[in-house]
Task: inverse folding
């Protein structure tokens, strides 16, 4: 029964909302909008430009589009998102969810436990675990390779991008796996059993029944993973963007320009671009949500 | 079509035994029903024949092949589930043709087959629609069509009519039976609805708690239930079952249940003091006398007017009986009335609940 | 799943399981090793590394800082979040749901380093760089939209009859909140507090950018410093400290998933 009694007045309501909205307004909304302006200045972290920045119009943006490091970061980010996000987390998460959903043995809780652990361990720790894991002389990965008589590899030097793709996949797969598992569980068992009885192979059951029926979830997952992977900063802890900028994804590029080279204005311009890309992802997500509810 | 045989089948799940010692022989082309309350194992038995579960012990044969360990796809069976399992993203035609597309049948042959099956099941103009756009009854026929299109050796039905409302169910029932008869394919049908089982089947297997209670034609199950469970399960309203004791005095025996008693012939193989259950169906409890009927005095506790018939609840002392009468004399609730029981319609069950055949019923008028 | 493919599936699953497990072995073994290195080996068990952590001033101070940051954020998020959620739940106005969705949208867009550039500049202007409160405010602003969303849902489910009774008794709005809504929403608030804790405890980027002096660093940044500092890395300390740092999060996860299922973490993290 919906009551029409007024519990609190509009004024009180506004008062209650005030502190939360103020904090959000000042420390989240304002920066998001202000960055547009900052990108048009030559603000700097130190020196004269930190006290008296001047307006440079679109100068920063022009320089960005001429900056090969920007294009490098864009390219690396794309490979990183495609590799770690799509091929890695989404596909691996989907694979695990499909294979495990009927599994009744101890394998299911075991895989669940290790993937989820990888997801919840704090990012600094996870980064260091991989520094140790990939170490050339002592790392466990090279030791395992040694068991098969393979030469030790200097992962973070010779295969840095591959290493961080592997790392980030390891880190994030659990989310997709859990999401897809829940989605597959909404499919009534009789749907899959009918297919089983009429002779459809596991692959066909996946392609013809599971995939179409979890499409909305699949879309949601791809968008979320894309957004998160695009913005993730943790690889910095492993490679600092190196060697020679080979793993400098956009977030690391922003960090280097703004906080290592102190060029805040320039960094703000890049940030604007990134935030607009994020906004694009978020809008696609909302559209997909709305369509799946229809 | 093929016959189906189960031999000594056991199935256990983690916390309980679903089936024990099940042996059945289902003839080619037979409409065979597995009937029983929830949890009795009937669906498990069906799933074992389908290959969705594997038996712990025993063997299963389809035709002359031992399919006990074969995967479902290799058994040439077709299954229809209670919720039809129609794929919402495929059209009716795509749903029906799915098994054929899996088998990579050429497209024109698929189309012919789908069309012919659809016509037979009156799904003609619906082939391009989506499952959500057709009625419940039509959805059910689509599920059957998908089974038919596979030319299976056996049809397996898991309560396919439960999701239909009462009127549709009657039509669908008759329809399914006709289709099965026309195709001549062996059908194993699972239901908890005894009316459905009785109406559709050539033979019925009644299960309870994982065990077979009786396997026989509907008529025999109704007229000669093998035990108390079957007697009480089949028939609506259920058979009156009176529990009491046998007393033998000299040459005569009597059955006593409180104030109610009946004289038994002395060839009844029961000891003095033995427990016995006497059964009589409500339609054999009358308000008018008849040839050889036994007369009792009873108190009318309740009357249900169903239009076509009346159901009386009456008591003789502690014993409560239901009577089912078509028309005529209708005593009122609270009145005392004279009722007449037909001794040739008595069923006698021993202390374990098993039927004791009574020939011309060793029961005489009391 | 039966069938011929099963051995291959099992092999694939085993390999994947091992892939996930291997990097974590270091965290389990090395803290207790007498000779800690980057290698994973079963050595003589020893608690020496933990002693080293206990003696390390930076480690101890960082621990205190992490507590301050997380506790402060939890406090603000719970307080401001519940007030806002209550107001949104009990008042109807045009665009209420849109505002909520917009806030959520914003919080998922304004993330990462890109957001830190203007935030750093802002905090710099406000003289909040290198302060705990500066970080707490950023954490709070980041998590509040999600917190409000969850709490509003929760409060919608609390029947209004309690408040109506209190109103009849002459209660003021503040009292309504303090004595009726807030206590009744305890369960939801606990969940929000825990989620805030987990998010802030693990966060590296925000304190990394906003805090300069060693005295104020939280554990995440301290560990980073340990493994990038010049000289021979103190692996034993890093290992033991990391394990201690990880334990609260692991414990909380198991506790929450036992009571509520895993669902809560989805969509919140990241």
Result:
């Amino acid at each position: 029964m919906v009551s029409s009694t007024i519990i609190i007045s509009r004024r009180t309501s506004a008062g209650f909302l005030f502190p939360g909205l103020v904090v959000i307004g000042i420390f989240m909304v304002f920066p998001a909008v202000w960055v547009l302006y900052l990108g048009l200045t030559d603000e700097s972290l130190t020196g004269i430009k930190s006290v008296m920045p001047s307006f440079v119009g679109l100068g920063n943006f022009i320089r960005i589009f001429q900056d090969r490091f920007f294009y490098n970061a864009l390219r690396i980010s794309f490979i990183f998102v495609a590799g770690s996000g799509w091929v890695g987390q989404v596909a691996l998460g989907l694979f695990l969810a499909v294979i495990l959903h009927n599994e009744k043995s101890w394998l299911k809780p075991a895989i669940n436990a290790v993937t989820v652990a990888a997801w919840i361990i704090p990012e600094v720790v996870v980064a260091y675990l991989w520094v140790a894991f990939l170490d050339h002389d002592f790392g466990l990965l090279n030791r395992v390779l040694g068991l098969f008589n393979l030469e030790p590899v200097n992962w973070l030097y010779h295969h840095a991008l591959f290493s961080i793709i592997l790392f980030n996949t390891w880190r994030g797969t659990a989310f997709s796996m859990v999401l897809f598992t829940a989605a597959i569980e909404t499919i009534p068992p009789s749907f899959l059993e009918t297919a089983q009885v009429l002779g459809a192979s596991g692959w066909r059951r996946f392609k013809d029944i599971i995939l179409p029926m979890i499409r909305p979830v699949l879309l949601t997952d791809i968008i979320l993973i894309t957004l998160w992977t695009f913005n993730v900063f943790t690889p910095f802890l492993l490679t600092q963007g190196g060697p020679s900028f080979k793993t400098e994804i956009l977030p690391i590029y922003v960090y280097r320009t703004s906080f290592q080279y102190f060029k805040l204005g320039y960094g703000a311009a890049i940030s604007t671009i990134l935030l607009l890309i994020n906004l694009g992802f978020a809008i696609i997500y909302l559209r997909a949500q709305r369509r799946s509810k229809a | 079509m093929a016959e189906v045989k189960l031999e000594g089948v056991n199935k256990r799940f983690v916390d309980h035994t679903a089936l024990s010692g099940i042996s059945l022989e289902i003839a080619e082309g037979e409409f065979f029903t597995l009937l029983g309350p929830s949890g009795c194992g009937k669906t498990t038995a069906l799933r074992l024949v389908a290959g969705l579960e594997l038996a712990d012990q025993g063997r299963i044969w389809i035709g002359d092949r031992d399919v006990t360990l074969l995967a479902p796809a290799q058994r040439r069976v077709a299954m229809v589930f209670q919720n039809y399992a129609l794929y919402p993203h495929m059209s009716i035609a795509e749903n029906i043709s799915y098994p054929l597309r899996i088998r990579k049948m050429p497209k024109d042959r698929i189309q012919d087959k789908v069309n012919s099956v659809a016509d037979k099941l009156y799904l003609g103009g619906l082939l391009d629609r989506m499952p959500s756009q057709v009625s419940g009854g039509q959805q059910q026929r689509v599920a059957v069509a998908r089974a038919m299109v596979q030319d299976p050796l056996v049809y397996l039905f898991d309560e396919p009519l439960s999701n239909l409302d009462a009127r549709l169910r009657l039509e669908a029932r008759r329809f399914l039976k006709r289709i099965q008869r026309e195709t001549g394919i062996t059908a194993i049908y699972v239901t908890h609805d005894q009316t459905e089982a009785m109406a559709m089947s050539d033979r019925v297997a009644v299960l309870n708690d994982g065990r077979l209670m009786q396997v026989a034609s509907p008529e025999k199950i109704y007229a000669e239930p093998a035990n108390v469970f079957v007697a009480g399960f089949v028939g609506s309203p259920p058979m009156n079952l009176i529990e009491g004791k046998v007393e033998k005095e000299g040459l005569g025996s009597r059955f006593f249940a409180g104030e109610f008693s009946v004289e038994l012939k002395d060839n009844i193989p029961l000891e003095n003091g033995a427990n016995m259950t006497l059964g009589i169906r409500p339609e054999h409890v009358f308000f008018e006398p008849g040839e050889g009927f036994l007369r009792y005095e009873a108190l009318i506790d309740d009357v249900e007017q169903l239009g076509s018939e009346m159901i009386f609840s009456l008591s003789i002392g502690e014993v409560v009986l239901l009577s089912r009468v078509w028309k005529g004399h209708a005593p009122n609730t609270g009145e005392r009335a004279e009722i007449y029981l037909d001794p040739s319609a008595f069923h006698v069950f021993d202390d374990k609940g098993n039927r004791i055949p009574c020939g011309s019923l060793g029961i005489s008028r009391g | 799943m039966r069938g011929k493919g099963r051995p291959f599936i099992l092999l694939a699953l085993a390999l994947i399981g091992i892939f996930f497990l291997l990097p974590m072995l270091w965290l389990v073994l090395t803290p207790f090793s007498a000779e800690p290195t980057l290698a994973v080996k079963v050595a003589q068990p020893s608690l020496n590394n933990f002693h080293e952590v206990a003696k390390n001033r930076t480690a101890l101070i960082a621990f205190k800082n992490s507590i301050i940051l997380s506790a402060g954020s939890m406090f603000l998020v719970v307080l401001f979040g519940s007030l806002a959620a209550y107001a949104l739940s009990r008042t109807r106005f045009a665009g209420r749901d849109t505002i909520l969705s917009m806030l959520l949208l914003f919080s998922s867009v304004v993330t990462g380093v890109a957001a830190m550039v203007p935030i750093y500049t802002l905090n710099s202007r406000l003289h909040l760089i290198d302060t705990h409160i500066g970080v707490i405010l950023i954490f709070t602003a980041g998590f509040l939209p999600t917190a409000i969303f969850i709490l509003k849902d929760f409060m919608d489910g609390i029947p209004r009859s309690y408040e109506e009774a209190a109103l009849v008794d002459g209660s003021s709005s503040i009292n309504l909140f303090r004595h009726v809504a807030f206590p009744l929403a305890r369960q939801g608030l606990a969940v929000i507090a825990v989620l805030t804790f987990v998010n802030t405890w693990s966060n590296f980027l925000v304190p990394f950018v906003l805090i300069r002096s060693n005295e104020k660093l939280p554990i995440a940044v301290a560990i980073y410093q340990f493994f990038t500092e010049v000289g021979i890395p103190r692996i034993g300390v890093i290992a033991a400290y990391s394990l201690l740092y990880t334990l609260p999060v692991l414990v909380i996860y198991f506790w929450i998933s036992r009571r509520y299922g895993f669902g809560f973490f989805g969509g919140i993290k990241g």
Summary: Chain A touches chain C through 97 residues (CB under 8 Å). The CA atoms of residues 19 and 58 of chain A lie 36 Å apart. The domain at 67-293 of chain A is CATH 1.10.3720.10 (MetI-like fold). The two ends of chain A are 27 Å apart (CA to CA).
